[in-house]
Write a structure and sequence with these properties.
With 119 residues, the chain is an all-alpha fold. The chain is built from 6 helices and no strands. The protein binds heme C. InterPro entries: Cyt_c-like_dom (IPR009056), Cyt_c-like_dom_sf (IPR036909), Cyt_CIE (IPR002323).
């Protein structure tokens, strides 16, 4: 009896796992090298955000880790922007980009909270 329940349960778990996107290793690999396509934005990202958001050990949500970003995005862009500007937890004010505009932060957040579709 139990056996008959176990197999479908396992299948469902496996399928659910697939829908959660990339596995941890793929995610860390992506985060370690990802760059915004726009060169100016890439420059800022490389200078300011990448040091923390490209590796898991800093406590920062990883670039491309949509599951980690989702609850943060739910706060709304205004809150996210004020957290970046004021500093938040382990993140210093302005995420170390003192001359960044709100619109640049917004684009950086959009880039960092997104994992690219498989080609
Ligand atoms: C010195 C490390 C560091 C740098 C540099 C840094 N961050 Fe962060 N960031 C963090 C950490 C740590 C958190 C998580 C803080 C927490 O949840 O306690 C975070 C969280 C965030 C959040 C989510 C805030 C929230 O309300 O949940 C945003 C947005 C963000 N960073 C954007 C940026 C941007 C944009 C840059 C570059 C301009 C940047 N960060 C640079 C460490 C950093």
């Amino acid at each position: 009896m139990l056996k008959h329940l176990l197999l479908p349960a396992l299948l469902i778990l496996t399928l659910a796992g697939c829908q959660q996107g990339p596995d941890r290793a793929a995610l860390e690999q992506y985060a370690s090298t990802a760059m915004p396509a726009d060169t100016e934005l890439a420059d800022i990202y490389q200078r300011s955000c990448q040091a923390c958001h490209s590796r898991g050990s800093t406590g920062a949500p990883l670039t491309g880790d949509e599951a980690a970003w989702e609850p943060r995005l739910e706060q709304g862009m205004d809150t996210l922007l004020s957290h970046v500007v004021d500093g938040f937890g382990g993140m210093p004010p302005y995420g170390l980009c003192m001359d960044c505009s709100a619109s640049e932060f917004e684009h950086l957040i959009a880039f960092m909270s997104h994992y690219p579709e498989a080609p």
